[in-house]
Amino acid sequence: MLLARLVYPNHLCDLALKFGWPVEQVSHISTATQTIIHDQWEHLLCWDAARLTPDRLVKYAHAIEQKGAPMGTIWGFIDGTIWGIACPTYHQCTCYNSWKRKQYLKYYGIVTPDRLISHLFGPVDGRRNDAFLWQESNLPNILERNAHAPDGTPLQVYGDPAYSINCFILSPYQGARLTNDQKQWNRSMSRVRIVAEWAFKEIVNTFGFLDFVKNQKHLLQPVGVQFRVAVLLHNAHVCLHKPQVTQYFNIENVNIVEGLMEDELLEPPLLSEYFHN
Fold it and tell me: Could you give the CA distance from residue 56 to residue 45 in angstroms, rounded to a whole number?
């Protein structure tokens, strides 16, 4: 019932006819189900230390390097996204985005080469920029504690120019007078960073209800929980249906690493492995 609610902007009366339940019970069941899922599994969207181990981060970095990244310490891609909501009756300026000139909620996530959204922060009101989300999320401290190779080498995520540069995050070269090497570096990273945009686009394609702005009424329903649950369900879909993004990072000259083929290393985990306590 929850999936039917999220997959397409159906009216509740249409779902009531489909499932044979009263309208108010359809609403209550779908809302209660997404709340249970979020309460049980939201820890997977913060930093899943059981899965994002140093060995796993190194494998991600190796795959990204082999695809064309100019360095071998980048293990994921950080990207922000804005999600449109209906204009609220109260506190409209809180969510008003002056660039888009509409009301939005903002999120950002880290996408890894197996197409999982391995970290998600939000929602935050739409007037905030990516740098604010970066600091508010406490992600700098999380990366400092966890984003290391087994030998202690710092590993980085790669983002757009809104983010700063340090031992754990990188962004493109900026400025009007870039050298040819700097331009080539930006182009190489742009080709591999595209997977972050693919992941968020896939959420829209799978759960069309989230893209129906008129029904995203954040003062009347938990739209933030709804989006985060959709990310969990997206990751579950990736685990069940081996995505093409994994094939994007396959290496033409397959190497043997610890007895496994490289394409096997990039496969998403089993569903039972991803949803662990």
Answer: 17
